[in-house]
Amino acid sequence: MPKRTIGNLLKVRQASVTETRSLLADALAAERIAAEDETIATTAIHDEVAAASALSANDGTVEALGAWLPQARVRQTAARERRQAAEVATARARAALAAARAAEAAIESLIEVRKTEERLEAERRAQADLNEHFLTRLTKSNE
Q1: Which fold has domain 3-142?
Q2: Which of 22, 67, 70, 124 has a CA 20 to 30 Å removed from the CA of 139?
Q3: pLDDT in tens, 1-11
């Protein structure tokens, strides 16, 4: 593979890492918001149940809780499901970032191998030139 092609491939891989980092940041933000929404829904239920359970609560408060609670449970369940979906999306984004980093590292490794091969080839040629020069001088001195 030509150097230019490998260089371009590395740029593509680096761009992929940058993009997947951004996607992970977005997924983490969405997960945080979903978790906060679930906490708010759960806290609201807890607070309303505590208020209705207080000794000072009247029948109207208890009846209001009875009417409100089923809808609150639906909101809580929906918030939990959004949080769980956000956690899955975050896990996928983490996996995508790991894969992008691995692909980038593979190209970087290939570039390093190529550089090493080129250096070794240059050293081999230099040694061959020295050998040829030595043999030429040796042949001339023996004549």
Answers
A1: Helix Hairpins (1.10.287)
A2: 124
A3: 666 799 999 99
